[in-house]
Amino acid sequence: MKDRLASLTGPLRSLRLCGLLCLLVFPTLTQAADPLKWGADAEGGAPYIFLDPEDISKTKGFEVDLAAALAREIGRPIEFQQYPYDGLISGLTRGDIDLAMNGLEITPDRLEHVRFSRPYYVYTLQLVSRADETRFGTVEEWLKLKLPVGTLSETAASRYCEKNELPLSTYDGQLEPFQDLALGRLDAVLADLPAAVAYAKSNPKLKFVGVPIEPGFYAIAMRPSDEALAKTIDNGLERLIASGDLQKIYEKWGIWNGDQESLAAAKSADDILKQSAAGFSMANVFKSLGKAAVVTIQISVASMCLAMLLGLTVAIGRLYGPAPVRMLAVVWVEFFRGIPVLLLLYVLYFGLPTILQTLGLGMALAPSNIVVAIIAFGLNYSAYEAEIYRAGITSVPVGQWEAAASLGMSKKLTFRRIILPQATRMILPPVTNDFVALFKDTSVASAIAVVELTKQYQMLAKSSLRYMEIGLATAILYLVMSIPLGYLARRLEARWGKAL
Amino acid sequence: MTSPSNNNVTLENITKAYGQRTILDNISATIEPGETVAIIGPSGGGKSTMLRCINGLATFDKGQIDVGGHRLAPNSLPAEIHEVRRLFGMIFQDFQLFPHFTALENVIEAPVQVRGQSPADAKARAMELLKRVGLGERANYYPRELSGGQKQRVAIARALAMEPRGLLCDEITSALDPELKAEVLDVLLDLKAEGLTLIMVTHEIHFARRAADRVLLLADGRIAESGTPDKVLDSPDSERAKRFLKTVMA
User: Cα distance from B78 to chain A (closest Cα, Å)?
Assistant: First the structure.
């Protein structure tokens, strides 16, 4: 009995020991059942991955289906994790996610940082215009016209437009560029074919122009150190392509086309990129940043002028107006000081057209994104400038009013000739301060597809992954613009100081 | 009572109160053209307020003020006040030059903006005035680059540029060092000689004696004493005046 027991426990014990050894020596074996973290941006939109309209706790899209098929194929669960599109590559490096599959194009600069799987889709770029467009009927005609075009930010489409020096607005979502196209803010949208199919094909206001251009590949990005995993994924994809399961998924989503035949031949990302050279140079970076800096200057200068004008009006209303005007001025200041400028941007940009259309005014009155940015910042800062003006005006001694009055000057004349000039000199330092702040605040305008300096930096840095070098270049540009401003203000102060 | 000449400054029963405190208590006075009147009295006696009422810078509750055919009353409209201000310039204790203008620009501002003179004419006239107050060389200086006495002389030139019949001077030497006072007072003597009416609130008893045709002693919102400098300063009738003069002369 005792012997039998011993003979039973002996192998049991050694088995347990063996298991423990396995855990220590082959940790990968135990991880095999752990889910892979798949990063994608559900805000990016259809048909890739998007929130199921019927149950927004679930996601839908051809990539969701592909992930499920792939998980079956490799025998390991793949778990979706929401991740911002333009941070996907960094997410891999940081270890937040194991796979990035979200319509990522294989590009030379990305290849420097990630290991791409074999391609899973051949995309092409589709040009979309309004249905009533008559100025162009082909891509070639369109390229010559240099009309305002919208794309998803940091995509092959945006790079194509930049390369061709087209006036470009970039968006974080797939839907918004098509909305703006329909509204007339853009004359064309260049999008990856799947997105164009999802958002434009069924819209009677829009039409496809010409044949798709610039074919490229979507592939799954992984860490270069995860070579074993990459091999597994490659094999899984190969089996899905060979079995026709992938085709079924694409057919379900209406994005299967002849181009996909080449998927079977394209073995690895490296093959694809043999011919394309890296298009990255610091000279090009500075050129792009310079253009964006001009936008930043335009917005900040124009909105500051607007803010000063409105601010002065509000300050005068608050100081000298009749009771209702004073009240209105107080409300104005509290309102525009109290709401985030981002909210203002969204409401003016996306909300206003809806109101205009409801009123039957159409889009003729809907301002462009840069104009909206100028208005939003102008309104926001008018609240601050109004208060600064008010303080400046009241700080002029009352004796100045009396002296002017004793010379027969009217109140209006006194204000214009005597009080306001002195107030302006006094408020110069805080206003300069505000201007520099506004200058930097304008980066928020990227929310409504304005490509200003910070946005351009993000685009360049994220596509080249040279955050440091380009960041430095951008910082230098900001300083080159703001330091002379401070110098100018000090010069003015010194000159005016003599007169105060 | 003699009928008021058109060119007189006549105050009739002027009363003004801030809440419970009576600043001016039923004041009546007449100042004739070309007369130099010094208003003296203890602080808070209503001197400055009386002067400011004549120029419409302060309002009053009762009474009326006639200045050269125009009448100021408690409910006067801005247009009426404006007319009165054309007749009398005002000089302030703390100068109140416009700091963002040069001396010259200070002087031409009102002639150009209010009277509509051409800048060239206004400038020529302003240079004359600045020379007259001894500041021809300083025309392009900003106020902060000038001494107190120079500032006050620019202020006088500025008031004269509007060609007033007279000047209201509100303790115009109080903020000045003794050596700078003289240069300002000399200018006033010049103006008196030219026949301008001067109504000045002052603490300069000696100057009042030398320059004034008449001294008004204002205390507790009333005219305690009125007469020639010698009479008021040396042998006042009222107890209030005696008490005040004793402290000032001491």
Answer: 9
Q: What is the mean pLDDT of chain A?
A: 83
Residue ending a domain, choose from A237, A256, A278: A278
User: Is residue B155 situated within a structural domain?
Assistant: no
Alpha carbons B79 and A336: distance in angstroms, whole number: 39
For residue A252, being part of any structural domain is answered with yes
Q: Is the pLDDT assigned to residue A58 strictly greater than 80?
A: no
The verdict on a CB contact (< 8 Å) between A417 and B144 is: no
Residue A206 and residue A228 share a domain:
no
Question: Is A18 a domain residue?
Answer: no
Please tell me whether residue B55 adopts helix, strand or coil conformation.
coil
Bridge partners (DSSP) of residue B39 are: B201, B216
Q: By residue range, what is the domain housing residue A375?
A: 282-497
| pLDDT tens digits, one per residue of A149-201 | 999 887 888 888 888 888 888 888 788 888 889 888 889 999 988 888 888 88
Do both A432 and A374 map to the same domain? yes
Q: How many domains does chain B have?
A: 1
Low-confidence ranges of chain B (pLDDT < 70): 1-6, 250
Do A137 and A242 lie in a common domain? no
Q: How many CB atoms lie within 10 A of CB A333?
A: 21
In chain B, alpha helices (H): 47-54, 78-87, 103-113, 119-132, 148-160, 178-193, 205-211, 229-234, 239-249
Give the residue carrying structure tokens 């000689």.
Answer: B193
Determine which of B87, B98, B109 to mutate to test the interface with A (most A C-beta atoms within 10 Å): B98
By the CB < 8 Å criterion, does B165 face chain A?
no
CATH number at residue B15: 3.40.50.300
List the domain range (segments joined by +) for residue B214: 9-95+165-249
Whether A403 and B90 lie within 8 Å, measured CB to CB: yes
| Closest CA of chain A from B28, distance in Å | 23
- Identify the contact set of chain A against chain B, taking CB-CB distances under 8 A: 397, 399-400, 402-410, 413, 417-418, 421-422, 425, 496, 498-500
This model of the complex carries an ipTM of: 0.93
Convert the pLDDT of each residue in A196-240 to its tens digit.
Answer: 888 888 888 899 998 888 888 899 999 988 888 999 998 998 898
